[in-house]
Specification:
single chain, alpha+beta, L-amino peptidase D-ALA esterase/amidase, Ubiquitin-like (UB roll), 2 domains, nine-stranded mixed sheet, six-stranded mixed sheet, 11 helices, 15 strands, 32% helix, globular
Length: 415
């Protein structure tokens, strides 16, 4: 195991998303799967010999495409070539037809690309219990393959969306071992976000070569520090999938920490974007916990605070009701001494050594109000800082406020 703390790479943000790394192509088209007429079919193609690592929903109620992807990664993880995504129908809880439709779709893509069907993955997103309109999907494969392009990342990112308000993508470039390395990513999700594996749907590409086992470990740690550190509403989806491809000149082991740093940065950007785009949300919430014995403890506590409906509604109401934060930490399952607790809400310290401090409540409320008027993912983040002891571990989690619009969106979702 290597220590990511030793990585010292300056990363620069680029355009292009998943197609910024060398050798990757993507496309997104309108296939008629959505009544809205918006793009709904996406394809990402990796260079030959790509290693692919995946993490998936932990729910026992899962779409057939999730199991199909997991099986194919287990047997062909070091030679994956493509992933097809259909948006509009989750194809979950659809009986045996769900698997048959996933097999038909990947076989059609493999035939057009001239690769083995076992090298093609599929992800589906949309309404649970609704099968894919297969005639429309299959008719869309030819136009989709024809649209493949080395600059097709933005189109692919648009075609995987459902209730999202914005597309979510990023690309970074850094110099590792004397050469430029690019890492790209795209994701979708704004509701049913409380994963213990990944996100609703997420994809990462990288133009550096890493052995499959090492890549799997690297991606797993990055997921724990990003997608496993977000929550919107406490609900995990039936289709949660995160797929990460690595293809390019091999990096020596001494450079793996630098690469993992970039992978984690891309994953965290996408995770924050999902939390910020939570259905009906007006701001991002970031909870930092320090002073636990282990990172996993700090992460569990941070996620508990982020997921608290009382904390989320207080933030939405611009109410610095800090007792809700401490109460949520106390029920996280992580033991701590209240006498050690220090708490900050934005720039205001509210507790020290377990005792409440005087603070300007109106100013704190105004600071919360200003966050709702910020720029997306820039200065619209409410930051909560919590110290619970003298341990060396720390972690961050991200969520969003809870508004009446969340209820409205989900009450009317299929009607």
């Amino acid at each position: 195991m290597w220590a990511v703390q030793s990585a010292t790479v300056s990363w620069t943000e680029l355009n292009g998303g998943v197609t910024a790394p060398e050798g990757f192509q993507a496309a997104g088209v309108v296939a008629g799967l959505k009544a809205s007429g918006r793009p709904d079919l996406s394809l990402l193609v990796a260079p030959e010999g790509a290693a692919c690592a995946g993490t998936f929903t932990t729910s026992c109620v899962r779409a057939a495409c999730v199991d199909l992807c997991a099986q194919r990664l287990q047997s062909h993880g070091d030679q994956m070539r493509a992933v097809l995504t259909n948006s509009g129908q989750a194809n979950a809880c659809t009986g045996s037809h769900g698997l048959q439709d996933s097999l038909r779709a990947t076989h059609s893509v493999a035939e057009r690309l001239g690769v083995d069907p076992a090298q093609v993955l599929i992800c589906s997103t949309g309404v649970i219990g609704v099968p894919i309109p297969m005639e429309a999907l299959l008719a869309g494969i030819d136009p989709l393959v024809q649209a493949l392009d080395g600059e097709g990342g933005p189109a692919a990112a648009e075609a995987i969306l459902t209730t999202d308000l914005v597309s979510k993508q990023i690309a970074l470039e850094g110099t590792i071992a004397g050469r430029p390395v690019r890492i790209g990513g795209m994701a979708k999700g704004s509701g049913m976000i409380h994963p213990d594996m990944a996100t609703m749907l997420g994809y990462l590409t990288c133009d550096a070569g890493v052995p499959l086992d090492a890549w799997r470990q690297m991606v797993s740690r990055a997921v724990d520090r990003s997608f496993n550190a977000i929550t919107v509403d406490g609900d995990t989806s039936t289709n949660d999938s995160f797929l990460a491809f690595a293809a390019g000149p091999d990096l020596q082991q001494e450079h793996w920490p630098a690469l993992e740093d970039g992978v984690t940065r891309v994953a965290q950007h996408l995770a924050r974007a999902i939390a910020r785009d939570g259905e009906g949300a007006s701001c991002l919430i970031e909870v930092s916990v320090r002073g636990t014995r282990h990172e996993a403890e700090a992460l569990k506590m941070a996620r508990t605070v982020c997921g608290s409906s009382l904390v989320k509604t207080a933030i939405h109401g611009r109410d610095p009701n800090w007792g809700r934060i401490v109460a949520a930490a106390g029920r996280s399952g992580i033991s701590f001494d209240l006498g050690d607790v220090a708490l900050w809400l934005g720039s205001h310290q509210l507790m020290q050594a377990g005792q409440p401090l005087d603070f300007d409540r109106k100013a704190a409320s105004a600071e919360l109000r200003a966050c709702a008027q910020g720029t997306y993912l820039k200065n619209d983040c409410v930051r909560i800082g919590l110290v619970v002891g003298d341990g060396s571990a720390s972690a961050k989690a991200w969520g969003c406020d809870l508004s009446d619009q969340y209820v409205r969106i989900n009450a009317d979702y299929t009607t």
